[in-house]
Amino acid sequence: MSATSWHEAAAAYVLGALDEKERGEFEAQLRASSEVQRDVAELSEVVALLAYAAKPTHPPASLRARVLAEAERVRPFGAKPNVRFRARTLVPYLALAASLAAVAILGARYQEERAAGRTLAVTADSLQRALASRDVIINALLAPEVETIRLSATDRPPAARMYWNRTTGEVILAAFQLPPARPGRTYQLWGIARGGTPVSLGTFNTVASGEGRHTAKTPAGLTIAIGAVTEEPEGGSPQPTSTPFLVGQVN
Amino acid sequence: MPATLPTSATDADILARLALGEERALGELYDRHSGVAYSLACAIVRDETDAEEVVADCFAQIWRTAATFDPARGSVAGWITTIVRTRSLDLLRAQRRRARVLDDAAILNDDESATTPSTGDTPDRDVERSEARELVRRSLAELPGPQRQVLELAYFGGLSQSEIAAQLSEPLGTVKTRMRAGLEKLRNALRPIMGSEVLP
User: Fold this and answer.
1) Residue A136: its pLDDT value, please?
2) Closest chain B C-alpha to A126 CA, distance in angstroms
3) DSSP codes joined into one string, A209-234
4) What pTM did the predictor assign?
5) Taking a C-beta distance cutoff of 8 angstroms, is the pair B92, B98 a contact?
6) Number of other CB atoms surrounding residue A76 within 10 Å
């Protein structure tokens, strides 16, 4: 494909205006060239902004109520339709359920989008990676050899729940009601073997709402007896420099 | 008027709560983005009832798949408008009523009374959106007519290059050149607002 040709194809590609055969040819070019990838990324931003060219039209007030009612109806999380988000204790279960449901929907949606052939390659890549990531989480959580560790300092928030797959070493941490770390600081998760020293399982942070999720893999040979979270300087520390404020034991 | 009070939470914060199943977060996201979503759906499907259908479907999809959003791939606003455009074009195709000639009134020639809906977001982010919208519309209006036409037929009409060429009775090569040239000019004009976290 000549330079002029791929430049023109890139413009049509981001607008979804290539025919199927042309799209296949262009995507091969896209995979092979970082220059083409950069061009497509920039042009995609331009195309996204075209949404603002539509005449501003106010949605009817009834649509908001409909959207919220629909969300409750289609909620495929195994929750009863009228169960509301009341107790903080529901959060971990909802989070897990959301992940499981997202995988099923994501898979179906991904296939649908692919079949329709209108999803940009970048979006497809993103979905694929997200799907792979969800698979890892689900496989790690559903195995019989998964240990659950409840991390807390007191009976009050913040709290976290840690899932550890003894066989694969996958670790998933879900933190709740934990404010984001201060500027220049981060949270660090530790796994500690009986009688051993803390082993870093990576750093993480939470969002403004206090929720955070983190995945890690234990080094070979580490049998976690205790999980702990400390606050550390940005980038993390080789060993904890502060007292853990969340601690829990494997049952 | 949004149903929720203005909040300084970012779109990503709201989406994270959404991914955990918090319905109130869906209301906040709706207040922030339903204006652009509905306007875009109306411009594509040309029917308010159909546009409502599209927006309702889109927010249901967003609700179910919030956990799949990848911030490394772009803004939440961009994700939402992509979903809305895809769904709107799906509906057009399903109804076999593709735009033969786009009615400019639905896109550029809005009257002065058309205002951007309030979003429940912070005033500075609302101002940023409003200014961005003005720049996009001005930049598109300043394109040579034939370039603007092919971009609108592709973006709002969902037509392929060859369909556009057939509809306009122009050589395919001409359509390709106009499409690239039009997007290039827009890229230069819109560069100041590209990469924003609050814009599509």
Assistant:
1) 64
2) 7
3) TS-EEEEEEPPTT---SEEEEEEEET
4) 0.59
5) yes
6) 14
